[in-house]
Design brief:
The chain is of the alpha/beta class. Strand 1, helix 2 and strand 2 form a beta-alpha-beta unit. The chain starts with a helix and ends with a helix. Its cofactor is thiamine diphosphate; Mg(2+); Mn(2+).
């Protein structure tokens, strides 16, 4: 008869081995006592790469960034109690951004729950409805049925996180003491089959011929169409959608997170300046479309949201790879559930070259060219604005790299100033819940997955996750972090709150007045504070030449930045209105 330690060891080892058999390669562990069986067994397994990130909130976002980059599930492991609660923000982001995350929380055994025992909180469905699947694991036993049970749950966790609309799964492990596994046992990893416990055969998600004919027949009744590409990560999509647009001769409004602005595919019909173009209500009304086909999530651009609200009678088609109802404008929409790249290729077989208005395309292209002239125009003022800093970064970011962008002003400036480029740059962000927490850790997680990585974010986002920098020091990760420091919440300067001076600075501006250079020194990184675009370009290029953590702080003034943006937008609006006349 097996004793407690053997039951614990074999049960956990079979579970962990099946994670690897099902394709999992990376696990992020936060130290704790109750999670000892999982943590030690994962560290012992030859096919799993574990990383230790002490703070659980940081660990979860680190895993999230890695999963976004790899487009495959990453697991996180922590102890019981509030350690597990610190995963919650990343679990929410995982759900809304459709990023696969396997959450493995250790727990007190059932007899210690609700008794006042330490670190014993209610962890059953701790994350509510956000996980795609929750399961309370059985207490460890090591007879054959229970080992198959452990393997089945591990396999299901990996497949469920990765399949369909990817997202988080949560498995909760109650463990009794003693917690130390015995790795000297024979046949420690159990009897793995030649394939994972569960295998899936998933067919292509495509419209049939009748559905395609119905859709194309409907579109031929229109003259002015738009393809809109929102945030998405499919590497095959950009070439497929740009080829479709070329054949049909209609413009593409491409979000910076769509992966359509960067790469070797043709971009003649890509309208990357639509955020600046659509800021004018007059221009929005002039550019009335007959139909919009949107791929991916809703674009970052708020002017685009106003645009579709202004034209709520326009026929709108939203393509979801699996399922979903992502339509925040509240417009009547026909949802198409099909793989986006495959749908583009299927639609490209239908000859629609002369179906649409050539002047419509010409107008969009001319407006885009006009807007870009002003966006690229260099100012004579000595100080850098946030837009200029992001424009400089967009030009300097190296080929074959990742660009991770923070929320609030950073992603909006990237939307404006990250123009079409032949460089292969994958642009990532946490746009599921749009929070500012965990950004440093997310960027470092992406850096840990391989490519050279640049993270651009604001000072409040930097402050929120400064302890995430420890992972860069611990693992020697190569990352360039550009901190746009306007000493507070710069995005609020663009909102109506700015007009309430009595409360603005205290409640919204929230200046930090901290020395970022001291924080970088504490974590062993290099620090630079360039004064202008020439210096910024220089230090950016230098950062890409050496290993480790590089932090570049760009100090800006919120009031000057607001005025600079407004001036740019006014110049663009005047130029476009002149063209339309």
């Amino acid at each position: 008869m097996m004793n407690h330690t053997e039951n614990l060891t074999r049960y956990t080892a079979n579970f962990v081995d099946e994670l690897a058999a099902s394709g999992l390669t990376d696990v992020v562990i936060s130290p704790g006592s109750r999670s000892t069986p999982l943590a030690m067994t994962i560290a012992e397994h030859p096919d799993l790469h574990e990383r230790i990130v002490i703070d659980e909130r940081s660990a979860a976002f680190f895993a999230l960034g890695m999963a976004k980059k790899k487009q495959h599930a990453v697991a996180i492991v922590c102890s019981s109690g509030t350690a597990a609660a610190n995963y919650f923000p990343a679990v929410i982001e995982s759900y809304y951004s459709r990023t696969p995350l396997i959450v493995l929380t250790a727990d007190r055994p059932h007899e210690l729950r609700d008794t006042g025992a330490p670190q014993a909180i209610d962890q059953i469905k701790l994350y509510g409805d956000y996980p795609k699947w929750f399961h309370e694991m059985a207490l460890p036993e090591a007879d054959d049925p229970m080992l198959r049970y452990a393997r089945s749950k591990a396999s299901r966790a990996v497949h469920t996180a990765n399949e369909g609309n990817q997202g988080p799964v949560h498995l909760n492990f109650p463990y009794r003491e003693p917690l130390i596994p015995d790795f000297s046992l024979e046949n420690l990893w159990g009897d793995r089959s030649e394939q994972s416990f569960y295998t899936t055969i998933e067919g292509e998600r495509r419209l049939d011929e009748e559905q395609l004919k119905r859709l194309t027949t409907m579109l031929t009744s229109f003259r002015k169409g738009l393809i809109v590409c929102g945030p998405q990560t499919d590497p095959d999509f950009a070439s497929a959608v740009t080829e479709l647009a070329k054949l049909w001769q209609i413009p593409i409004l491409a979000d910076p997170l769509s992966q359509v602005r960067a790469g070797e595919h043709e971009k003649d019909l890509v309208i990357e300046s639509y955020d600046a173009i659509l800021r004018s209500e007059t221009i929005r009304k002039h550019l009335k479309p007959d139909f919009i086909i949107r791929f991916g999530a809703m674009p970052v651009s708020k002017p685009y949201l106003f645009y579709v609200k202004d034209h709520n009678d326009c026929a709108q088609f939203v393509v979801e790879n699996v399922q979903g109802y992502r339509e925040p404008a509240g417009n009547i929409t026909e949802l198409i559930y099909a793989d986006g790249a495959e749908l583009c290729r299927d639609l490209a077989t239908y000859n629609m070259a002369n179906a649409f208005d050539a002047e419509w395309l010409k107008t969009w292209k001319k407006m885009n060219e006009t807007a870009k002239i002003h966006l690229l125009e260099t100012d004579t003022q000595p100080d850098m604005t946030e837009g200029e800093a992001v424009r400089c970064l967009a030009e300097a970011v190296p080929d074959e790299s990742s660009l991770y962008v923070g929320n609030s002003m950073s992603v909006r400036d990237l939307d404006t100033f990250f123009l079409a480029t032949p460089k292969n740059v994958q642009v990532l962000a946490n746009r599921g819940a749009n929070g500012i927490d965990g950004m440093i850790s997310s960027g470092l997680g992406a850096a840990a997955a391989g490519d050279a990585t640049t993270l651009v974010l604001g000072d409040l986002s930097f402050f929120h996750d400064m302890n995430g920098l420890l992972a860069a020091k611990h693992y020697g990760l190569n990352i360039t972090i550009v901190v746009i420091n306007n000493n507070g919440g710069g995005i609020f300067s663009f909102l109506p709150q700015v007009n309430h001076e009595a409360h603005f600075e205290t409640l919204f501006g929230t200046p930090l007045n901290i020395d970022i250079g001291d924080a970088v020194k504490m974590y062993g990184g290099t620090y630079e504070q360039p004064a202008n675009e020439v210096e910024l370009t220089k230090v950016l290029n230098q950062s890409y030449q050496h290993e480790g953590l590089s932090v570049i702080e760009v100090k800006t003034d919120r009031t000057e930045n607001l005025q600079w943006h407004r001036t740019k937008w006014a110049q663009i609006e005047n130029a476009l209105l002149t063209y339309l006349r």
